[in-house]
Amino acid sequence: MLRSLFATIRTALRAPTTVRYPTERPRMPERYRGRHIFYDSLCIGCSLCAKVCPNNTIVMLERPEETDPKLRHRPIIDLNRCIFCGYCAEVCPAKCLFMGHAYEMAGKSKADLIFTYRGMIASPAAPDNARSVFPGIDGSIREQFVAQEKAGEGRR
């Protein structure tokens, strides 16, 4: 009986291990895999990130207005499906895609969690939680590109 009483007193006198979340932000470990960070100026449009993704979360957006082949394809990431494995960041030969430390990715709809390359760009002007929703996608990114694959364009 005394042993359990001492254990209770010892635990009550310790400092709390929790953080007062909205006012205090927890510091994430160095190897934490959060929201993706994309450097557009370094991307060569090779599509390796889309090919290695185990969930087909990353789809390459083709921009027909671009004439340079390096600027023609850019990634779209559907965070509804992402398992944050980090394979896309590992395989990138240009080192333009990284796993960031941002963990606040809540949205009011599924479309809020679809990031185009503009929403992932890390720049001093953009806040850490900046996002850009791809217009025309109102749910799953997969449905949008199934028609493109059937039409023969497919993923590159």
Q: What level of helicity do the residues show? A: 10-25%
List how many beta strands DSSP finds: 5
What is the CATH first-level class name? Alpha Beta
The main pleated sheet reads as:
3 strands, antiparallel
Identify the notable features of this structure and list them briefly.
3-stranded antiparallel β-sheet, Alpha-Beta Plaits, 156 residues, 23% helix, two-stranded antiparallel sheet, elongated, alpha+beta
What does this entry look like structurally?
There is one protein chain. The protein has helices at 2-13, 48-52, 87-91, 117-120, 141-150; strands at 36-38, 58-62, 73-78, 97-99, 114-115. By secondary structure, it is an alpha+beta fold. Strands 2-3-5 form a 3-stranded antiparallel sheet.
Strand and helix layout:
Blueprint: H1 2-13, E1 36-38, H2 48-52, E2 58-62, E3 73-78, H3 87-91, E4 97-99, E5 114-115, H4 117-120, H5 141-150
Antiparallel strand pairs: 1-4, 2-3, 3-5
Please summarize what this structure is.
With 156 residues, the chain is of the alpha+beta class.
